[in-house]
Amino acid sequence: MTAKPAAAAARATVYGYPRQGRNRELKKAVEGYWKGRVTADALRETAAGLRRSHWQQLAEDGIHEVPTGDFSHYDHVLDTSVMVGAAPERHRGAVEADALDGYFAMARGTQDVAPLEMTKWFDTNYHYLVPELGPGTVFTANSVKQVAELREAVALGYTARPVLVGPITYLLLAKPAPGVSADFEPLTLLDRLLPVYAQVLADLHAAGAEWVQLDEPALVQDRTPADLNAAARAYRELGAAADRPKLLVASYFGRLGEALPVLAAAPVEGLALDFTEAGAANLDDLAAVGGLPGKRLVAGIVNGRNIWINDFRKSLATLGTLLGLADRVDVAASCSLLHVPLDADAERDLDPQVRRWLAFARQKTREIAVLARGLGRGTDTITAELAANRADLASRAGSALTHDPAVRARTAAVTHADGRRGRPYAERAAAQRAHLRLPLLPTTTIGSFPQTDELRAARADLRAGRIDTAGYEARIKGEIEEVVSFQEKTGIDVLVHGEPERNDMVQYFAEQLTGYLATQHGWVQSYGTRYVRPPVLAGDISRPEPMTVRWTSYAQSLTSKPVKGMLTGPVTMLAWSFVRDDQPLGDTARQVALALRDEVNDLEAAGTAVIQVDEPALRETLPLRAADRADYLAWATEAFRLTTSGVRPDTQIHTHMCYAEFGDIVQAIDDLDADVISLEAARSHMQVARELAAHGYPRAAGPGVWDIHSPRVPSAGEAAGLLRTGLEAIPAERLWVNPDCGLKTRGWTETRASLENLVAAAREVRAALAGDDA
To answer: Is the pLDDT of residue 1 over 80?
Structure first.
């Protein structure tokens, strides 16, 4: 059937685009600037060139309205703090002295001043810088960046729509500044903030903006009546401003729910909704409020977070239904394309047919353009595209890669007992104390050590054939020897091998498991200049052979101290991959858990007494709506226990989590039944330790005392102070001492100094505790 053309041709648009460039030019320019090799002007020119390239690509792929303001040197929430003049007091001097250096100081800190706290952007693996606000915060408008980037696009001839973080989401993401009562609610600052937003909107209007997009993803979460009233007031006031562009309020990552009637009734000209994450619910809710008569609807119909091709037939059916619910319907991705790699066509190592199943940012923009054309002009204008799409979907569904009968049979045979340790924690802890003989406040690290230039060069030489496998493995052994020797000399109690053989904590394992596909150029921003290549979880998962035993055993042969075996947990293996969308996530998690269980058991059999299974993504993947969380946490915690429950009582199981809000999942952390958990805590001043104590968490914990995402070297006194704060919540016999996270991104100079200070802090506090007992 040919779809009826819309009254006006549908426009194709996106909310944001990957920032890094085809060869991660932005990362190289920013890091070069930090090291003094790139000037500020050169950095700005690189950024401007990337923006021009992105807009050109979007236009070539059929996008009618390009976004501006989404580009960032580090983080778009930090950009918003700059836009509204909300630099923390401790950074004001640096910002006033040099705007660019002050910006990076807020992001990374300096030796003397701590950075802003970092945490996950909703349920993604992108990290944002948390605004710090208080009763004394004074907002001032600074629209220089937003106006300049709009003018760049307009001067190049593009129809452009600036994109801003909305005022409600900005305030709901903020936290009380240091020294401000934890009871302070940043949303109470809304009346101060709205005039600043009104001024920015007026500046953009004067610069030629017809539309401005205000992103409000926080409204897809459970919101209180006060939150909804604040949203209604905000858009009533902004909508009433005389000097403004048309306003498009965008939500994504889920169902807008109770906020939909609030925004539908607001005096704004358009809404953008996600029809992928909660498509049926948003569609039903939109119909229930009577649609958006007289308004523009931007339909997020192409998944902006995953990499599988769109089902054109299903999308066109949804879009056809939406035509009757708004004055005009335009087509977009469900969220910014920041969360996917740039171009699947660059993946020449993948089978060409498999590559046709994948849609990265460039492919998604083309999908959006095809759907807009089919919606606006009729499906007879996209006949060839529809036929190719059907063939590619059928190819994936029928592939042997996606179905392994042996894996499915093993998963179906899992019992409740398979996910339970044989002894309660108290008995296990006693057995582990006798086995490991560790001191009070044992010290350890999270796993990875700095990846040196020499190591990266050796990896590149191996890929290029300049050295053979034996030469590469000799280099790996040398790195492990150096790491083990340093830890022994420093006095660390439980060692790690440093993971020199690993390119990434998920990719390394994915490359050794069946069912995964690895990319060569699929870089995605995690935070700042940290980019990862999420593997593609395409089919049923199994482990052909041991993955970590060899290198862990080699490290253990070099020392009498325990060396941790290091694995990435099943939930994180899913969360930091592009996961298959053709079966429930819980089923996929069970498959991954069984593959990892085999590895845990082989490590124990090889003599590894401490095994860490990292799950930093457990909180990140938590559904945004409370009603959806129980089911997720049930299969997520079961998957972890299935991974770890096949070991003896005297084998100590660790886990690790970082850069997320843990208060929401303390019960789930408890349900993991790990013997020891290490957690990010330095930037939040041991908040998680207090949350564990309030819950009555009964096992051992290591809240971090070194923020490894900053180049600062914490003094022994600073680390000792954090330890003492931790002791106020966690008894000494259950408190571990460790950094916040792995050390892969740090340099050896700061790593040596920081770990020496960490060990000194542990010794100082141990001595004080011994004196108290005397």
So the answer is: no
